[in-house]
Amino acid sequence: MRVLIASHSYIVDLNCEKFRTLAQLEPDVEVTIVVPKRWRPGGVQNRTIYPSPRQEGRFRVVPVSNFSQNNQGLLTFGWDLVGLLRQFRPHVIQVEQGSKGLAYAEMITLNKLLGLKAKLLFFTWWNLPYSLKFPVSLLEAYNLKNTDGIVSGNQDGADVLRDRGYPGPIRVMPQLGVDESLFKPQPQPDLAAQVGLQPEDFVVGFVGRFVEEKGLLTLLRALGQLKDQPRLWKCLLLGRGPLKETLETLAVELEISDRILWVESVPHDDVPRYINLMSTLVLPSETTYKFKTLTAVGWKEQFGHVIIEAMASQVSVVGSDSGEIPHVIKGAGLVFPEGQADDLADRLRQLLTQPDLARDLGQQGYDRAMEHYTNQALARQTLDFYKELVHG
């Protein structure tokens, strides 16, 4: 089976691991990933990336000329894509742009014109209802009509597409797996001492952006209710963002500022070490309707990748019920209603006062991550879905 994937995400080699693994599952599987020849991610990495071609046995990454250098919805590819498709003749084409992607419409059209007869899929993260105006509505209708299967990063996204009339096969799985060679249980006594933690401390951790929708104000208000607990706790906040000053002020008001440890964003390879300092990781995300795009309004947690990283590290997890979080945790951690500090305080109090519970949930989370969320597990799920589409 020849599989072609198109996405700007795979200009980062670390993100390719799932498909690199897929190419090794069976001897007749070949995977070619198409990435833009030039891409400007924006944000802190404000420079244009020019990815290099890579070939590793039956897995390869091929940069192709592109239009739009920093908007995945507008991304399309140049004439050299035609030659690649003619040469490779894939059985499966997957474009990771969502239902309104121009590159997906381009692949659908080339599949017809070149007579490839490939099965067509797209990947989406979008998990809130939306309405469309012409001509974007026409573009989505064309894409959905010619879609053989969809991979949705979350259950809400699958439900949205059903509501929009798509009747075909959908599989729910994240875009990227967790690397269990990086994220694994590994004590960090030297790092703990370096950041000011004692061996007996119960460490409540967070990894991510310091923004309102990540629920950090709720987290601090919950911790403020635990300041008189007999067992000593600390809160390790790993990240940065515009909300930091507000959080520092709130911590002072709640009289817990001496319990908060702030760590600026660290290299990705160091994140596993910091997660291993935690007794529990909290992802208190909150749905918001403040954000607007050309075609939709709002945001809620689309997956919460840090949850599976903590699970793989055998760290217990607590998450809000925003978006996909409860589906990811699914009984292998604790869930609370988003925005409810009292309920979050209750979940944290359970872990503080019941060490066996924290230990058991850490093990359950680890087992769930190994079964469902490693690159190996996701590669197998993906290949099984491709086979279902190709062979009926």
Written description of the protein model:
With 392 residues, the protein is an alpha/beta fold. It is 35% helix and 21% strand. The protein has two domains: 194 residues, Rossmann fold (3-Layer(aba) Sandwich); 184 residues, Rossmann fold. Strand 8, helix 4 and strand 9 form a beta-alpha-beta unit. The model has no long low-confidence stretch (mean pLDDT 95). It is elongated. It has an eight-stranded mixed sheet, sandwiched between helices.
Quick summary:
With 392 residues, the chain is α/β, with parallel strands linked by helices.
Tertiary shape: elongated
For the sheet with most strands, the description reads: 8 strands, mixed
| Parts with pLDDT < 50 across at least 5 consecutive residues | none
Say what the CATH topology of the largest domain is: Rossmann fold
CATH level 1 name of the largest domain: Alpha Beta
What is the straight-line distance between the termini? Answer: 14 Å
* Radius of gyration computed on alpha carbons: 22 Å
Number of discrete helical segments: 14
Domains, number: 2
What brief labels describe this structure?
Rossmann fold; 21% strand; six-stranded parallel beta sheet; 2 domains; 35% helix; eight-stranded mixed beta sheet; alpha/beta
List the helices and strands and how they pair.
Blueprint (H helix, E strand, L loop, with lengths): L1 E5 L10 H6 L7 E7 L17 E3 L2 E6 L1 E2 L8 E2 L2 H9 L3 E4 L6 H12 L5 E6 L11 H10 L3 E4 L2 H9 L6 E3 L16 H7 L6 E8 L6 H9 L8 E8 L3 H10 L6 E4 L7 H5 L4 E4 L4 E5 L4 E3 L5 H8 L3 E5 L4 H5 L4 E3 L4 H13 L1 H18 L2 H17 L1
Parallel strand pairs: 1-2, 1-7, 2-4, 7-8, 8-9, 9-10, 11-12, 11-14, 12-13, 14-17, 17-18
Antiparallel strand pairs: 3-4, 5-6, 15-16
Helix pairs in contact: 7-12, 10-13, 12-13
